[in-house]
Amino acid sequence: MKPFIATLLLLIVATSLSWSQDRLKQSYVDDDLSEKEAADLKNRTKQRIAELQNYLNIIPDSKRSTAEREDAVEQALLLFTNEANMEIIDRKGKRTMPVKRYFRNLLDISTGYYTHIDITQYDVAYVSDFRLGTDGNYHSTGTYYQDFKGFRGDQAVYHDRTKKDVSIRADARLNEYNEKKWTLLLGNVKARSLEVIPAN
Fold first, then answer.
1. Are 52 and 5 contained in the same domain?
2. Where is the signal peptide (predicted)?
């Protein structure tokens, strides 16, 4: 009987320790962000959007090699969640597509109406505070402005500027050294406004 009781006690202790460790990991998600963490996440959001802009410059550039442009597509996709969509706005209105399709369209831009395009971005105008969501992750929105020029040959035939919002998801996990590590991904991109500018 005594061995049975001892085994039972060991099981209770092991279960309690496992539960405590799970609670410890969860507490890193549930606790409010420190000022440093909040500032770091906002800075990382700006860096992610800057990385996106860099890839948007490379992908449609027909002067670069196909391999370089294909690699830029793959790297750009790593910035986003798997389910992310890109909303596009022009004089015809708005339309939405998966980010992978959007990047592929940019890659094949020379087969469409434009021979090449230039996409540039202003500094990020605003990054909202990160808030804890019901999914256990932190969420924010980055607002930025994008300049688009479409060319046929050397002639600019279309020019616009759009205001865009991109959703941000950040989650923390403990590594093997019990250090908290953040993963930050871009989500859906929404086009909020459009300003068409004379191309010439």
1. no
2. 1-20
Clarify whether residues 93 and 68 are in a common domain: yes
Do 118 and 129 sit in the same domain of this protein? yes
**Which are the contacts of 184, defined by CB distance < 8 A and separation ≥ 6?**
41, 44, 45, 48, 168, 169, 170
Domain count, the chain: 2
115: tokens are: 């021979």
Boundaries of domain holding 2: 1-31
pTM recorded for the entire structure: 0.79
Q: How far apart are the first and last CA of the chain?
A: 92
For the four alpha carbons of 97, 112, 89 and 133, in that order, the dihedral sign comes to positive
The residue whose two tokens read 């750009």 is: 76
**Which among 200, 197, 90, 196 has a CA at the least distance from the CA of 152?**
200
200 residues of the chain, pLDDT tens digit each:
555 555 544 544 444 444 444 433 443 444 578 899 999 999 999 999 999 999 999 999 888 999 999 999 999 999 999 999 999 998 889 999 999 999 999 988 766 788 888 898 876 778 999 999 999 999 999 999 999 999 988 899 999 999 999 999 999 888 778 888 899 999 999 999 999 998 87
Between CA 128 and CA 110 the distance in angstroms is 37
Pairing between strand 116-121 and 138-152? Answer: antiparallel
